[in-house]
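Q: My collaborator sent me two sequences in one message, no labels, and asked for predicted structures for both. Can we handle them in order? The first one she listed is below.
A: Yes, handling them in the order given. First sequence, followed by its structure tokens:
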Amino acid sequence: LEGCASISDPQGNLQFYTDGSIVWDRNHIPMPSGTGLNGNGGATQSAIIVPAPLNLTKFYIFTVDTNGGPRGLQYSEVDMTLNGGNGDVSVKNIPLMSPVTEKLTAVRHANGIDAWVIVHGWNNADFYVFSLPATGVDTIHITTTIGSEHGGTFQNSHGALKSSPNAQKLACAVRGLRECQIFEFNN
């Protein structure tokens, strides 16, 4: 309906894609365990796929619920060695934070290996940042309170979140407030 995510190999060949609820393999067939993810295709940014650091066959799918819903931010894992090399969901729907908005992004860590996953909270002005090192998703998050409160009408849950590749800037669109907030970070 709205949000989707896909991932390709370094040569540009499709690996898999998702709407946050179903994961399809490169042949456009749902993976054997690829249904029932707790994201919502009606969310602006329903899912994001992040490669596992230092592992070429493992990927994380981070999903969000729609309209600040109770399922919040969750993650699942895809192992590309399963299902004859077409991949399958090996871990599903691990909760991280609830409630959150439909705004979700990821950016490479300054070390060039790990990643940060960023989501905005619902009914607050909080950004939640989760670390993704080679050991797996760190369920302990960093909270930064900055900018407008995203709450009240569900339209304030809608919008997009994007980081610059160098992680120095973060843009956050809030549909209901009709604004785009830009934050700049200096190390």
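Q: And the one she listed second?
A: Here it is, processed independently of the first:
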Amino acid sequence: MQQLALALAPPPEPTFDSFFPARNAGALRALQDALDGGERFIYLWGPRGAGKSHLLRAFVSEAAARGSAARYCRAEERIEGSGAGGGAVSAFAVDDADRLDMVGQLALFDLFNRLRTGTGTLLTAGTRPPVELPLREDLRTRIGAGVVLRLEPLTDEEKAAAISEHGRRRGLALAPDLIEYLLRHATRDMGTQMAVVDTLDRVSLERKRPLTLPLLREVLRLLEARPPA
């Protein structure tokens, strides 16, 4: 393979269809139901890599596709109740709520209060259960008063099934030894592993080489040798 500054393929936009539920099927259904007028306040918690960001972003994308003003933001971003053009947001997702500073906590508290007396849906996510969140007591109470759902990280067997399914959606038949090597040697978060599969597919097509273990090893070596972004 020609030496090139190889970059990971850009991750696809998260969707409900691309979420591999495993033991988290209940959380997936709750967010889908919320789009149809179900629960209005939902808090997802679990370790990093369990799929919280994927579900929150998928919810916002689906809400926007249905014509709702929707917004996703992380803890370091400004929480506002208005979207593009100044219209009120009716589907809001706040990620990493456990890392909100005092300004962010006050903004989220205000957003809770405005939505409770009006309409709209608010999803929040963090790595701890509500009672353990390092937040203002009144904000913890509001987060805990809604539906609280724990996300379980995928086991290695479930990750292998998720990667295989991702490959199938791209028309790829990924051999078991290739998936096992990827799980052992690539960064273990699912987003990166899916991006490696997409990059491997791209390189295979560009170089007219089959999807083999030697090609995966070569791609991973090149990715590790990338200059810092």
